[in-house]
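I am still getting used to backbone structure tokens and would like to learn alongside you. Label the sequence line and the structure token line clearly, so we can match residues to local backbone shapes. Go ahead whenever you are ready, and we will take it from there:
>
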Amino acid sequence: MSKLEKQMAIPLELPEMLKQFTKAAIKTQPPDVLQWSARYFTALQNGEPLPIKERQERMSLSNWVVLTPELLKILHTKMSGKLTIESGELLQMWRLMGLPVDLFENIMNVGHLAEDVEWLKFLALACSSMGVTIAKTLKIACEVLSSDCENGPPRIPFSTFQFLYTYLAEMDGEVSPTQVNRMLNYIQQEIIGPDGLIKVTDFINNPRVRLE
């Protein structure tokens, strides 16, 4: 063995890692190998499901995954507390998770979102693509935003709920500002405790709270 070969030791796990990567690429047949490779190794590093498609999935009309609250929560975690994000950066994160670009573009268009995207507005509209009603959309948003759902019902600050509900009602166009203010005042005065948090059960199972 030459001196150069001794200095360039190959990591023991590298051959097997490359073998699995190559098999996954052949099985998936990604249209953009570089983009898919970035998704593959990002998922591998983060311990997330690998973007590997079975044959029947490759033959479907779309290779994109379906947006779920769990995936949206991962995306929210990647935001690391940012209030705004550049649209190109957000699109890149969206693509790396395998989410459909047409849904991203639809959210941007519906919300009239521009270069600097307000994350809570984007998240609210993304949740609305999964929720049939405003109440169900807010339930999903609470589940995504809550950091303590393992200890009970998902909870978020009332101020965040107030922003989301007002924005969703405005985008919906069928809930009057008077109705929004009445419900927010009731929730704040009759439901919210000293911790300033609202639980999903506060507005889903309460017959006095009608968000539609």
Q: What stands out?
A: The chain is about 60% helix and 5% strand. Confidence is low (pLDDT under 50) at residues 55-62. The radius of gyration is 22 Å. The first strand starts at residue 84 and ends at 86.
